[in-house]
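Q: what sequence does this backbone want?
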């Protein structure tokens, strides 16, 4: 099932380092089967008060591929470069799959447990 890696870049402290990061990270992401699907805007908030600063979303074939990329020896120096050059939040999501029941797709069982 597809995995989604979401980064919200809050601030860039070193433009030159981030330029180097962007140049080097794309081919590495692709080598793990990843693909950038969102880089910046435009975006629209339709509910709530959350406002992403600079959203970036990468898809991978599955969570194993996403985690392999993120924890790889090849990405480690780039991750450290990005973390020094920018402030960001990062979250990985695993999809529910195309044949999941509608209730599972909306997390109904989890929501019920949380609300109780």
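A:
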């Amino acid at each position: 099932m597809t995995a989604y890696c979401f980064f919200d870049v809050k601030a860039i402290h070193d433009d030159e380092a981030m330029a180097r990061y962007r140049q080097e990270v794309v081919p590495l992401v692709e080598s793990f089967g990843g693909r950038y699907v969102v880089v910046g805007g435009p975006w629209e908030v339709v509910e709530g008060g959350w406002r992403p600063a600079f959203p970036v979303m990468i898809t991978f074939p599955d969570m194993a591929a996403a985690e392999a990329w993120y924890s790889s020896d090849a990405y480690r120096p780039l991750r450290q470069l990005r973390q020094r050059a920018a402030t960001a939040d990062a979250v990985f999501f695993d999809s529910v799959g195309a044949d999941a029941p509608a209730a599972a797709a909306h997390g109904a069982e989890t929501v019920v447990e949380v609300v109780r």
